[in-house]
Design brief:
Radius of gyration: 20 Å
Number of helices: 13
Structural class: alpha/beta
Strand order of the largest sheet: 7-8-9-10-11
Largest sheet: 5 strands, parallel
Number of strands: 14
Order of helices and strands: EEEEEHHHHEHEHEHEHEHEHHHEEEH
Amino acid sequence: MKLTIRNIRARAVQVPLKRPPRSASGEIPDAALVLIDIETNEGITGSSYLFAFMRSMLKPTVAMVEALAEMIKGDAVVPFEIEAKLRKRLTLQDSHGIAGQVIAGIDMAAWDAYAKGLGVPLVRALGGEVKPVRAYNSCGLWIKDPALLADEASQLIAEGGYSAVKLRIGRPNFKEDLAAVRNVKKRIGDDVLLMTDFNQSLTVNEAILRGCALDDEGLYWIEEPIRHDNYAGCAKIAAEVMTPIQIGENLLNTAEMQKAIDAEAAEFYMPDVQRIGGVTGWLRAAAIAQVYNLDLSSHLFPEFSAHLLAVTPTCHWLEYMDWGNTILQQPFVVKDGHVIIPDVAGAGITWNEEAVERYLAQ
């Protein structure tokens, strides 16, 4: 079915979180989300959401959606064409920051509408098949008293039969980080994998010292030890530390991904669909990862990431975060450590309008 854009609606919500994030880089008290709906003349609506990180970014993000919407009203829902048009119109301004994130959000909603027009799940519209996608639980184990983390790790594993969880580290006192790692590792044993994330909190030298000290702790990866765009520094760390280094959630486009790969900045990569350019940007990133035979995981947005990883040749891990569950009619199901892609048309996002109304940002 050929679809034509009639309107694009953006709504800001502040959603409570079951386990509010507290990392070495800061705290997030609730999920500041912008909901995007592409409404078509044919009655089909494509939906997506963006994570604005903080309340103060909600208003400008909504304003940017509304500004870009004016450029594509009346256009056909052809995601590649829409993405190319928006990036061309923003050539002089550049499409990073909020503009880039909004292009990604519109792109995701366009792909959702496109798949609904075909009457198939997004993964099938992309040429793949509906199947479970391996996930780790990333909904907890934030910076807190190390003595409290073992019980929480057990809870996280039980929530979906997970075989992997992620622990945040980067405390001022490394002894506390080490205690946190050992407490969790002792509880989960060798059958459950433990990922760790420094959230860009260290210097290069400190990252090497801590990374080498963690090499004997049985970690699956060490994520973002230093500033995300210091590819040379990441490469130095990767060369010194035996535990694989994971980066990528802050890659702004595939050109940056190529720079990181050229610098040999990491063993693992995990693009964020909001930052890498939506579904369209992810497909380009997946192609690059395939060329270099690099494992590709996802960051946030499990509703879209599950579809995308299912068509990614070097699919590695899906990061499961429940931040959008409260405003969804049917949150995605996790079973035996895998996210189950719903066999419905589109990405599988339908808003719980009662919850959306309740959490609208004022």
